[in-house]
Amino acid sequence: MDEPLKFLFAEHQRQRQASFILDAIAGGAFDDDGVRNLVKFLDQDFVDHVADEEIIFFPLLKKQCQPEDKIEDLLSRLADEHREDELVGDHVVDSLRNLLSGRQLTASDKKRLTIFAKHIRQHLAIENAILLPIARVRIDTDSLMFVSEMLKERRAR
Length: 157
Fold this sequence. Notes:
Layout: H1 4-26, H2 32-64, H3 71-100, H4 107-138, H5 141-156
């Protein structure tokens, strides 16, 4: 967390891995421990990451970006996708919990898992290819230190 942009990228990599696990589960390849860990990740780390972006990172980018960056449109799109992730993610977690309780995934559950996995990868592609490079150029060192402290503070709770 001392290097917040690297931390965010690392979190994106974890989300990407989670998306591949979702695909594997939808395809029938899973074990209970893996599903339990995925549920914990989606319930905690994924939610924390979205909040980090919405509460800390996005507002800072709005302040430090230039008009030519057109950051408002990008952040609006990403925030909309975060809200969609929250709704769909709740259904995905419910499906995974049902799986842990012994219920089989329905065709609808499997489709929801694969759609969510694909959406995560598409969302991360935008954040990694567009948002993080802009942040590397626009966010100054003092602001990065502030982001680092905020990330640490949020996790100390």
